[in-house]
Amino acid sequence: MSKVIVFIIRVFSRLPFWFLYGVADLLYWVLFRGIGYRKKVVLNNLKNSFPQKSPEEIKKLSHQFFRHLADLMVESFKVITIDIEPLNKRVEYQNSEILDKLSNENKSVVIVIGHMANWEYVAATSGAYIKQLPIGIYKPLKNKVIEDLMNHYRGKSGIELAPVQETRNVMRNYFEKGTKTALILIADQAPSPEKAYWMRFLNQNTPIFYGPEFFARKYDYPLVFAHLNKVKRGYYSVRFELLHDHSGQTEYGELTELHVKALEKNILENPSIWLWSHKRWKHKLPVDIDSKQLSKNFPINSIE
């Protein structure tokens, strides 16, 4: 059955962009007007993140998000069969010289991104623009056939993929070999609240994955944030920001604060292209949380 699904996906993927975006226009109405896919989640996330916005502004943002989500869905199919050269034309890397400089200094890096714009396009094109060996961390799927299909297109330009449970072993292996690597982490999911670092993010108490800071500090790798944006329909941009060049000298929580604030800035620049349908705030701050896991700027009176 899985092989049949893969065949159908590949056939759909080969359709021209103009047709796929026609499907996306229809899909927008199905998702938003029809089944209302996670509509309550999206609206609640937007209301809580932007309490200063009026109901009309929130509604407009939700419309814009669902249109982007529909585009993202059909683009995720298209990336499976599109050749790397035309795909590269759809993602502009504006200042990869930041990573070139670090590579010339024989430095590996940790790159943090969010679920912004089209992160799958970035995964599929990153190997052509990053001199260090890019390593993308992913969460394994239950369906191995679909997982292999996704990993095939993600690796179009040479990015190496590793399941999340193997991250430490992979990084230890490359570090011991002296290989220059660029560990790419998407760090805006909802981690276990007991193990997370807690801070204010988009006006809410939010658990944050500690992984990017852990690896950056452990190996003293510079921490870089990749700002992802949508230029126009089907075209995206990547702008790198060096957050810290000496990660091993930082205090606990310092790097996490930096990359989360960079993500917040990225979202505020273009809020409709973040993944608002994700249940990002499903966890509440534990009452017995270790004080060391709290941001120094965490407002105690905001604890829920």
Summary of the model, kept short:
The N and C termini lie far apart (46 Å). With 304 residues, the chain is α/β, with parallel strands linked by helices. The strands form two sheets. The chain has a seven-stranded mixed beta sheet with strand order 1-9-8-2-5-3-4, with helices on both faces. A two-stranded antiparallel ribbon has the order 6-7.
Distance between the termini: 46 Å
Strand content: 15-25%
User: What is the residue-averaged pLDDT?
Assistant: 89
Spatial shape: globular
User: What number of domains?
Assistant: 1
Radius of gyration: 20 Å
* Total helical segments: 11
Which structural class is indicated by helix and strand composition? Answer: alpha/beta
Main beta-sheet strand count, sense and barrel state: 7 strands, mixed
Q: Which parts are unreliable, with pLDDT below 50 for 5 consecutive residues or more?
A: none
The total of beta strands comes to 9
User: Strand order across the biggest sheet?
Assistant: 1-9-8-2-5-3-4
> What is the H/E order?
HHHHHEHEHEHEHEEEHEEH
Helix content: 40-55%
Describe it.
Helix 2 (17-34) crosses helix 4 (55-78) and helix 3 (39-49) packs across helix 4 (55-78). The chain has one domain. Strand 3 (133-138), helix 8 (144-154) and strand 4 (160-163) form a beta-alpha-beta unit. The strands form two sheets. It has a seven-stranded mixed β-sheet with strand order 1-9-8-2-5-3-4, with helices on both faces. It has a two-stranded antiparallel sheet with strand order 6-7. The protein is 43% helix and 18% strand. The protein has eleven helices and nine strands. It has helices spanning 2-13, 17-34, 39-49, 55-78, 84-88, 97-104, 119-125, 144-154, 167-177, 211-219, 254-269, and strands at residues 91-93, 109-113, 133-138, 160-163, 181-186, 197-201, 204-208, 223-232, 235-244. The mean pLDDT is 89.
